[in-house]
Amino acid sequence: MCEEQTVSLVDVLEEDEELEEEASAVLAGSDSDHCSYPQGYVKRQALYACNTCTPQGSEAAGVCLACSYTCHEGHDLFELYTKRNFRCDCGNRKFSGLQCKLHPEKDDVNSLNKYSHNFFGLYCTCRRPYPDPDDQVEDEMIQCVVCEDWLHGRHLGCVVPDCVEMQEMICESCMNKHQFLWTYVAHLGVQSPAVQKKEEKGEQSEPSIPESEEKSDNIDEPSCKRSREEAEPSCRLKELQEAGQKRDQSGAVFWPPAWRSKLCSCSSCQVRLSDAGLSFLLDESDTVLAYENKGKNNEQRQQGHDPLMSALDNLNRVQQLEIIHGYNDMKTELKDFLQTFASEGKVVTPDDIRQFFEQQSRKRRRADSGPFFCS
Questions:
Q1: Torsion angle, CA of 290/295/300/306, rounded to 10 degrees?
Q2: Which domain holds residue 35?
Q3: Does a structural domain hold residue 204?
Q4: Verdict on whether the full-model pTM lies above 0.85
Q5: What angle do CA 330, 333, 334 make, to 5 degrees?
Q6: pLDDT in tens, 107-166
Q7: Which of 54, 103, 214, 334 is the most exposed place for a label (fewest CB within 10 A)?
């Protein structure tokens, strides 16, 4: 007879808290009650693909958080985390026989939506599902901020840095598609451990500074030239290109915090980014971290709306106090009960929980029966 696998209450509480934080970071930034379609192409939102309604072989489609709950309850869904500039497809032409319950009137297609193999539950350059039942290697997946695909760390072609959750990544394919991004890498990209080691040994000098930045501020220039430069700021990208510093153009690139603010935003570069569909790189509020912070703020504002307190509004003062005292007593006793298991690292069994609530039930019956007088 094999022993039943057990975990301590501490493990359960820690895992539950971690999962709750991850879920709230993704979901709290999206509306769980109303279809996002009327908002148009939402800047960033939690999305799902329904394998029941749009399986592989059909047209790719994505649904918002609210529709995943209301219109696709019980369906086989792929969680896509978040996508930018997406409009909910639920119930449009791609869904034969299914009408959106939250917003039935929709265009046949959303022509500006971008789709990938993620919408059929496939990820990375290896195009495998996640979780992958055939993959025995424990490996985290990281999202590219450009194509928004999820890639295995071992398939990035580079060393994954520490504190990766604080850094944005652009995959090698997107870097090669937008070659000008490589110009920024030598100056802004997170260096690999190998490069850092060389610098510590003095094998590589400090990054060269563009000549325009080395010029002395004391050099007199014609006033007309100065005013023209003030009106038309120089292109930082061009200066970096002229500096000539390069890095090996292979593998994914990790970028440090606030790297977007260091990109050139001159008129020429804005046109370049727009033509490449990368204007969002100049928007620091586009980041997943900004979206998650927004979700956390929403959750904190909503914490004051306790369902219990809403129900209490319909009771008189005496009833409110009685229920509040009983509720707080039960919470305190449950906390004390569970704390004994947590402090000793013991496992809480279903019988333990059942026993606790049976004791609570007996206490209520004794209290409700009133005082007992013996003759």
A1: 180
A2: 16-120
A3: no
A4: no
A5: 85
A6: 999 999 999 999 999 999 999 999 899 999 989 999 999 999 999 999 999 999 988 777
A7: 214
